[in-house]
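Subgroup meeting minutes
Present: P.N., E.W., G.H.
Scribe: E.W.

1. P.N. recapped why we're keeping a running log of single-chain structure predictions: easier to compare across weeks, and new members can see raw inputs and outputs side by side.
2. G.H. added today's entry (145 aa).
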Amino acid sequence: MPSTFSLIRSVEFSETDMAGIMHYSNFFRFMEAAEHAFFRSIGFSVAARPGAPKVGWPRVHASCDYHRPLRFEDRVEVRLRVVEKKSKALTYEFQFMKLVDGVPTEEVAKGRLTVVCVEHQPDGTMRASAIPPAISEQIEVATGD
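Output recorded in log:
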């Protein structure tokens, strides 16, 4: 069962500010891209598919600490670790590693994201619900650092 996942991305020009540095908000987009790819890797999606559990994953906590800048065309490995799994929630930690010639050279940022499993109600509201067994059984909490 997966507890970690890694995604490699390049910083696009549109993701930088006037100083040529990746805008802070894009770190959250990279975290979300890694989360979506993680779900795909275990055979699911964060969006409901026919025949799959009809649940959503709203964010209840998001944070990021920045250590070094990323610039246009830098390559970064976004490492996702499942650090907590509760009956209705998952918490991930993300480590952003700058790649030079394909080798991780330094941590540039560290993020954290907590999502809650919800069912969409007929009236349009959401209600927290247990993570469906088909999904929960595919995810485990990472051990160690």
